């Protein structure tokens, strides 16, 4: 029960972040509406790996921007990253993407 309540709190934060973003073009508005509808249709109880690719990519973008802003301010981002399962999953995917990209580039440059 406590885990479900924690997931609901995390998703409320995600909804707030989704509403706070600045939507510059119609494509971003359509994507954010689809993400918001998917969240509402699933009662916010999905695990990070059960979410759609669009939601995961959005979470990766949010985590990357927040971690970079924390690093620029000179703060430690570890507490932010480990604050929810969704942020941990997004950060792990981000590290995998960066690592694979670096590996591919290093192999090309050899």
Overview of this structure, please?
- The chain has 110 residues and is mainly α.
- It has one domain (2-109).
- It is 76% helix and 0% strand.
- It contains five helices and no strands.
- The chain has helices at 2-20, 26-41, 53-72, 78-81, 85-109.
- The longest helix has 25 residues, at 85-109.
- It is globular, with a radius of gyration of 16 Å.
- It starts with a helix and ends with a helix.
- The mean pLDDT is 76.
Return residue spans where pLDDT drops below 50 for at least 5 consecutive residues: none
Largest sheet: none
What percent strand?
under 5%
Q: Give me the secondary-structure category.
A: mainly alpha
Q: State the distance separating the first and last CA atoms.
A: 53 Å
How many domains?
A: 1
The whole-number mean of residue pLDDT values reads: 76
Rg, Cα atoms, Å:
16 Å
Number of strands: 0
Fraction of residues in helix: over 70%
Number of helices: 5
Shape: globular
Order of helices and strands: HHHHH
């Amino acid at each position: 029960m406590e885990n479900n309540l924690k997931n609901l709190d995390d998703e409320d934060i995600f909804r707030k972040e989704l509403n706070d973003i600045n939507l510059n073009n119609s494509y971003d508005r359509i994507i954010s509406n689809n993400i918001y509808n998917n969240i509402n249709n699933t009662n916010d109880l999905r695990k990070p790996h059960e979410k759609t690719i669009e939601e995961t990519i959005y979470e990766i973008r949010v985590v990357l921007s927040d971690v970079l802003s924390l690093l620029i301010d000179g703060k430690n981002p570890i507490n932010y990253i480990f604050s929810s399962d969704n942020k941990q999953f997004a950060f792990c995917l981000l590290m995998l993407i960066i690592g694979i990209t670096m590996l591919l580039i290093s192999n090309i440059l050899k």
